[in-house]
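Hey L., structure's done. Input below.
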Amino acid sequence: MVHPLWLAALLSLGLLLPASPARADADDMAELQGKLGNTWVEVRNDRKRNIRTWIKQEDQKRFRSFKVEATLEGSMESYARIMLDFDNYRKWYWEVLESRLLKKVSATEYYLYFRHRTPHGIPGRDAVLHAVIEPQSRSHNDIVMTVRAEPGFIPLKPDLVRMAAEDMTVRFTPLPGKRVKVEAEGYVDPGGNIPAWANNYVQRAAPYSIMIGMQRMLENDDYANSRTPLPFPILGQGDLSVR
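Output:
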């Protein structure tokens, strides 16, 4: 994955990191003064790490949408193993306390459970995510993962708020020199009552943090040098002629 996942995740995803309300409110005011609307506004451009992020406020949506693009060092095989290691998203994905597989429908379709850390005084959040993977083929050389929240898939837990949306589409494309291009776009609605500054902070900070975490995992020997068979084929990193 993976919100979930992107991963998501693609994260697909994580929820809330404690932040300063005063600072976050000031950031929000600055963005409101800039008339954040239905077009992408760049939030961060880290040229050293090759990560860019954007946000926008879409019509009829409660919170902002996000977009991230990154060029990471690693192989498509390593990415696939990270994505499918559902129990270990807590090691790298934004504020995940627990992640696990609920149901495997096929080699390319899964239902996942995520529980997210929240600041003190805000009820914890959990999410059920439906992840569908489109593997590489002779007609396209990327892997596309689509993640959608399925709040009613399992019963609600009394001490948690079920997230209404943790939706994203993540595209991974092999590049020369054992690199991977990551493009993700999505929307998170944590459900229930949540301060706007808290969720907006997540939309600004989480996509960048997830890319940093993914880069760290791509360099991990457990993924980079694994020979564990994958459930779907991966084209050679150098096979860039397919489109």
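The first helix runs from residue 21 to 33. The helical segments are 21-33, 76-84, 196-218, 221-224.

-- N.
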